[in-house]
Amino acid sequence: MNPNHEASAVERSAIRKICLRLVPFVALMFFINFLDRTAISFAGPNGMTEELGLHVVQFGLASGIFFIGYILLEVPSNLALHRYGARRWLARIMVSWGIVSLLFTWVSNVEGLYILRLLLGIAEAGFFPGAIFFLSAWVPGRYRSKILSLFYIAQPLTVVFGAPLAAWFINQHGLFGLSGWRVMFLGVSIPAIVVGLIAWFYLIDKPKDAKWLTAEEKAWLTAELEHEDARKSHTANHNLGAALANGRVWVLCLIYFGFIYGLYALAFFLPTIIGGFQSQFNVTFSVMEKGLITGAPYLVATVVMIFWSRDVTRRGCKPWHIAIPALVGAVSVPVALFMDSPLSTMLVISITASAIFAALPNFWTLPTQFLSGAAAAAAVALINTLGNVAGFSAGYITGILHDKTGDYLVPMMVVGAFMLLSALLMLFLSRFSHPGQQTNLLNGHEENLKQAGGN
C-alpha cells in the first residue's frame, strides 16, 4: 500500500470481511462455472464420443458452438445485471446453466448435443464479467487487485482439482444405470443449481445492505465508492455509449485478446505436449502422473498471482505490472519447445502460466478506473467477449498451423506474438492516453491513495 495512506481500523475490518464473506463464495461459483463449461472435454474420450457415434469434427463443433450464444449475449447480460442487481442475475445465470448442464445426462444424439451446448453458452453468458463487475463494485480501486486475484484463484485450481473430480465421477459407471460420463454430468450439474439457489439469499448487491458490516464500515465503504463514482461522472463515463465510444476500451479488448489467446492455447495443448514426452524424451507416465504434471504449472501460477497482486496493492497498479508478465509470457511460450527434458520444459511452461495469471486479475482493475455504472458493466462484458473470441480461435488456429508445419513451433510463435502485442499495447495505453482522460487509468490509482489518506 502507498506509504502516504495508512488504513484505519474500520477500513481494514471492512475489506477483511469482504475477502472472507463474498470472494470465496463467488470464487466457488466460478470454479463450478469453469468445470461445467469444460465437462465435455472429460466426457468425450470417456465414452460419450463412442456412445453418441461422434466424429472428430462433430465433437469439435459441439465444443465450439458453446461460444456462439455466449459471445452474443455477454454485453446484454451484464447490462441486465446492472439493472436488476448482481444477486438476482448471478443466481439466475447459475441455476439456468445448472439445469441445462443436467440435461446432458440424458442426451441421446449429436443433434441434441449441439442444442444443449448452444443453450449452455446462452445460459452461462454474462457470469464471468458479471462476477468481475460485482466484486469491483464492492471495494475502492486500490483494493480491486487484491479482491480479483483471490477470485481468480478458482480458475487455475479448476485445472488442478477439476480433472480428478471429473475422473472420480466417471469411475462411478453404472450408478443409477448411467454410463460414467453421464454420471459425471449429473455430478457437476447439481452443485451449480444448489449454489445458485443459495446465491439468491447469500449475495448482497450493495455494502449498505450488508448486515455483517457495522454501521461505521458501511459508511466508510459507501463514502469511498460514491467519491470514486463522482470523479468518474465528471467525464460522463457512466452510460453504454461511453463504453462503446471509448478508444481505451477497445485497446483493452486487444490486450485481453492476447492474454486469453495464450491462456487457451496453453490449456488446449499442454496435455498434448505432455503426451509427446514419451516419444521425445523416451519416458512413460501413467494417467495419474500426466494429470499431476498438467496441474503443476497452475499451482505455481496460483502462488505467483497472489504475490504479484500483493505488490500491485502495495504500490498501486503500474503499467509494468501488466506489461512485464505479457513480455515474459511472449518469450517463454516458444522457448519451452527447445528444452531438453520434461522437467525443464515444465519449468518454462510454469513461467508462462504464471505470467498470464499474474496479469489477468490486475488487468481487470482497469475498466472500472475510468468508467462506472452501465458503461463499466458494458465495458467489462465487451472485453470478455473479445477474449472469448480468442478462446474460440486459439485452438483452431494452433491446430491448423500444427498440421501445416508438423510441429508446435510456429503455433507457439503466434501465441508469443499476441502476448508481445498485449505488452506493447499496455505501454502505449499508459503513455499515450489523452492527458485529460488519463487520470483514472493506472496513474489515477496513486491519486486515489493520496485522497484516501487525506480523508
From TrEMBL:
A GO molecular-function descriptor: transmembrane transporter activity
Domain (Major facilitator superfamily (MFS) profile) ranges: 22-434
InterPro entries linked to this entry: MFS, MFS_dom, MFS_trans_sf
A GO CC annotation given for this chain: membrane
Membrane-related topology note: Multi-pass membrane protein
Gene3D superfamilies according to UniProt: MFS general substrate transporter like domains
Pfam families: MFS_1
Tree of life domain: Bacteria
Record protein name field: MFS transporter
Source species of the chain: Buttiauxella warmboldiae
